[in-house]
Amino acid sequence: MQKTSNKIILLLSLFLILDPALRILSFKISTGMDWSLLWDNIVENGNVSVFRFLEFWLLTPLAGLFLLTLSRVSYFIYSGLTLYKFYSLVSYTPFDWPYFAARPHVGAFVIITLNMLFVIVLMWPLIKKYLLSYHFKNIWDARGRYEANFKASLFINGIEGGFAGNIRNISSGGALLKITQDQKPLKAKPEDEAILIIQSSSGEHLNFEVELINVTISEHKDLIGMEFVNMGPKLSLALMNILLELRAQSMAKEKRAPSEAL
User: Fold this and answer.
1) Does this model's pTM top 0.85?
2) For the chain, how many structural domains are there in total?
3) Is residue 186 one of the residues assigned to a domain?
4) End-to-end alpha carbon distance in the chain
5) pLDDT single digits (tens) 16-51
6) What burial letters (b/e) apply to 128-138, b meaning 16+ CB within 10 Å?
7) How far does CA 102 lie from the centroid of its chain?
């Protein structure tokens, strides 16, 4: 997987290094200008500043060269340069250098869109950690949290044995488990990693990797809140089916409530 990612990054680096030539080619195709006129507009126009000239010829190739190092620092440099290129494109002054048209040509937008998508791919671990984390689920999770009563078992790393309980509520981001057995995980603490096994209504056992977020263990309370981590497509689909089923049950209950009151 790592070798595949490196090959993709190297391919993108080559694409970025060739970006000025590709944009000129796209400009030529979209405008139909003669090569001599095209060259005069891009290279020999005397009204363009040195910075704008270097921006066209060097900024994107530099991003490609930084990516060739395959270092995390290069990802941030590449992301910063890409964001600047995006700003430069959307703030383009009509009929200004280097396009001399009402708006940049389509090829320029295609190139910057591909670069922005790749920035999201490179930054996804940070986006997931800081924007899509458990603490922001109430804002970002449109599917909500639903009450449930699934049987479950929790196996915490570093603590011997498993702990049986019931899932009190669940969302696409995590679950709240109530311990039902006499033995309690008294040593459990936030950020502990664990395996949560949920028995769905169909009898299927689903194994989730989780990180403990809130741990309230005492004589009167025995609740553990946790966040799902490292879910693959198959497990995500199974969880989505559970949430859809719970959502349907919740909506049916809400419809029954007014009629029962009457």
Assistant:
1) no
2) 2
3) yes
4) 60
5) 788 777 777 777 776 677 777 777 666 655 455 566
6) eeeeeebeebe
7) 34
